[in-house]
Amino acid sequence: MPASKLQYQSVRYAAVLILLLAAVTACSSKSRMDRLDEQVARMIRDQQTQTLGPDAPLEDRPLSQASDLRYPAKDAYNYTPATVNPSARELPARHATETGKADAQGTVQMPIALSAVEAMADNVLELDLQGALATALTHSRDYQSRREDLYLSALTVLAEKHLWGPRFFSTVSGLVSGTPEDGEHDQALSVITRMGVTQRLPYGGTVSATALVDFVRLLKDTSNGAGEGQDAALQLSLRLPLMRGSGQVARENLIQTYRDLIYATRSFENFRREFLLTVSTRYFDLLQNQSQIANLQRQVNNLEWLSRRIQAMADAGRQPLFEVQRAQQQVLFARNNLLNAQESYSTSLDAFKILLGIDMTQPVKIVPSEVVIPEPELEVTAATNTAWNFRLDLQTAADQVLDAQRRLEVARNGLLPDLDIVGDITLNTDPTEKYERLRFDPGYSSYSAGIVLGIPLDRRLEEIGVRRAQVSLDRAQRAHMLMRDRVAQQVRQSLRSISQARFTLEIQNQNINMAQKRLEGVVLRLANLAPRDFTDAESDLLEARNRRDRALRDLRVSVLQYLLDTGQLRVDARGQWQMPAGLVPVADPLEGAQNDGPGEILRRADATTGQPTAARNPAAAGATASQD
After folding, report:
1. pLDDT class for 620, splitting at 50, 70, 90?
2. Domains of the chain by range and CATH?
3. 309-323 as b/e, with b when 16 or more CB fall inside 10 Å?
């Protein structure tokens, strides 16, 4: 076969081989990514079960694939991205519509709160605490980012683990060379294939095997003996350290990545608990805001009742006109406070949507749910010991002390001299003989073996590294002890918060009872008292109710914070609370609370005395009838 035709066929075979490898790689890239995700997910589940126990909340949901783009948008390569900034006359601003206008009787009409409009929408999403937690675990952007951090930690372990496994490699090189001589142009083509595998040894060192074949010379040699002899080689290499870099220190990166995955698993679980505590706190805040709005609405209704009653008494000549104006002014103040509370609730609700990862245009209605949170026994020593045993971040701090000790040992190993065993064995073919197939000739083989000693004449950088490792160890030990003290401080503060919230709740329940009785007395003797007595009693009752609602919120949050600080907070993958045993449930202090208005107080008094209140106070008959 002519040499030129043989070279042409060699180029064709090499090009087909390269294109085939590229096509196989492109077609299998997607399946490789899927297998990688499955492998990482399995590793994370196994690590969570091993680290957190059999009841660990396992993350079975896959990561989002929205960013899996093959080609970026063409604007991504634009040097000058467009900026939208219209002039002032092109802005879509409009004159605001008039709100809060007075009607024919002079009564100011309140605008409808945005949260109330959303609650009446057809596609409203009703969320209780359980629904909020489940939604947060599914849609929250912060939660998704922390899941990805855990995923990246698992990828780091896979990458380091891959470095310690057999690593295969293969390259195909096509080279054309020429030498012009005396007007003639001599050309040569070579297609060299190099394949091999390398393996790290468990206690340091590497071993590798490599095969090299000149594809063109092989084809020439097997085609009618027209070649120039084969050119192939097999090589086996070994490097084994005996002092520096040998032993357990050789696997430092592998050990640390595995431990970092455990730390990442603990950190993610800590974040889950803190995140769900944040969601619960925001939910309780919204419930408190709803109670505040309800309290303000009751105050507006009571003050409107007072305004009508004072107007009726003024019409009968029993009250001066300025008392009517004062009562009407109190109504306006109460309505303004109610509007401010409604707008504050709408703002908090929008922030809650962002926290949960809900679309801002999605109408949401917060549904009050009965959450009975057990109260712990307030024993400082037992609670502190529980926190020291169960806190995951404290366990990580203790393990990081061991990491610092191990890194110090690795740094000291760097001070040792280099003493390595090296060896190479190379099997070659006879370049002068032609064969129909590859044939290695031991006569053309070679080997080498020996010991390489590196005398440590300059170890200044290594000495600096040892000193740094010693300082890092001292800092890790201090950080661990500092965290122990801070954990104890957090537990003690949580216990004090529970005691304070419980005491405040009891006081405000008594305060509500006294304020309610005071209001009843003022209503029954309003004909002989000034209207200011009624407004003062109503304001005190409103303040007591708001303080009671705030104390109830603080008690619920402080109990959850105590469980978090002591490492006893447990939430499954669906967001279900898992309360620890040994805690005593408490009744909801809102049960049985009296929220009677003036009209109900008068009706109850009429039923008790058997004489209508309007008969005892004819001037208030119109107001009572209107309220009823």
Report:
1. very low
2. 114-148+255-399+474-627 (1.20.1600.10)
3. bbbbbbeeeebeeeb
What is the dihedral sign for C-alpha 589, 591, 596, 602? negative
Each residue of 377-419: pLDDT tens digit?
Answer: 778 999 999 999 999 999 999 999 999 999 999 999 999 999 9
Rounded Cα distance, 564 and 429, in Å = 71
Q: Which residue has the tokens 């350290």?
A: 241
DSSP track, 107-170 = PBPPPPPHHHHHHTSTT-EEE-HHHHHHHHHHH-HHHHHHHHHHHHHHHHHHHHHHHTS-EEEE
Helix/strand/coil percent split, the chain, to 5 = 60, 15, 25
Give the global pTM: 0.81
Q: The tokens 């206690």 sit on which residue?
A: 203
CA distance 108 to 232: 98
Alpha-carbon separation of residue 284 from 36, 128, 280, 287, 545 (angstroms): 41, 10, 6, 5, 16
Instruction: Find the length of the chain.
Output: 628
Cβ(160)–Cβ(192) under 8 Å?
Answer: no
Which residue from 169, 159, 175 is spatially nearest to 194, judged by alpha carbons? 169
